[in-house]
Amino acid sequence: MHLKNVIWQALTTRQTKFAESCDGARRFMREVTALCAFEHPDDLGYASLAELTGAGGTAAIFLDHSYEQRIGWEYVVGAPLLQMICENGITASRRNISSPRIVELGVVDSPEMLELTALTKPGPFGPRTHELGYYVGIRDSGKLVAMAGERLKVPGHTEVSAVCTHPDHLGKGYAAALMAEVMHAIRNQGEIPFLHVRSDNSRAIAIYERLGFRTAWEGHFAVLRKQNEK
């Protein structure tokens, strides 16, 4: 069973303190993340979203189906998306994976986190995204080379997000080690981990499946820009 309209759920339940709202739409504060949602993908939803983004503003949304062009919006980028849930994951994996020391990340690490996510593009990441939950990383010679953390939170579930590794450090097991750490923290709160991944990212999907994640939903994400009124 998948988590329906999960961004909307997060912004109307556990993460309301990060929400900006207008009628049938919600968005995270701009410095937190570009993720937005509407209660229903109808005329009211898009009109409400337009009020939130403003002319020239962008919105990253999840959809059940591929985006269909709407007047006043420009499609920037998007792709098929999987939602994966770890109902019965390997909680012991945190202790079984050999890796360098994992460190907790916070506000002082934000510039490096932004640099790494800009390079690896795991999804929308802003200067305050780290405030959404527990973030951890691995450093090599003092430089942040891999990270993972928590993003969307809905009742009973927390999302593992921003899983990324510098290209020079791929194949060392860093992503799996960091994910296991974050999953352990989520399990300790009595919650179930879930995540989102592009359906064409076979390398990442293979890692997630080894950690116990299974596909629960197939949809799409789209980044849209509100066009200026003529």
Word description of this protein:
The N and C termini lie far apart (44 Å). It contains 6 helices and 11 strands. It folds into 2 domains: 6-82 and 219-226, 3-Layer(aba) Sandwich (Aminopeptidase), CATH 3.40.630.30; 84-217, Aminopeptidase. The radius of gyration is 17 Å and the shape is globular. Strands 4-11-5-10-9-8-7-6 form an 8-stranded mixed sheet. The longest helix is centred in the last third of the chain and has 15 residues, at 174-188. It is 25% helix and 35% strand. By secondary structure, it is α+β, with helices and mostly antiparallel strands. The protein has helices at residues 6-12, 43-53, 93-96, 110-120, 174-188, 202-210, and strands spanning 19-22, 25-28, 36-38, 58-63, 73-85, 102-105, 135-140, 143-154, 157-165, 192-198, 214-226.
Task: Describe, in short, the structure shown.
This protein is of the alpha+beta class and 230 residues long. It contains 6 helices and 11 strands.
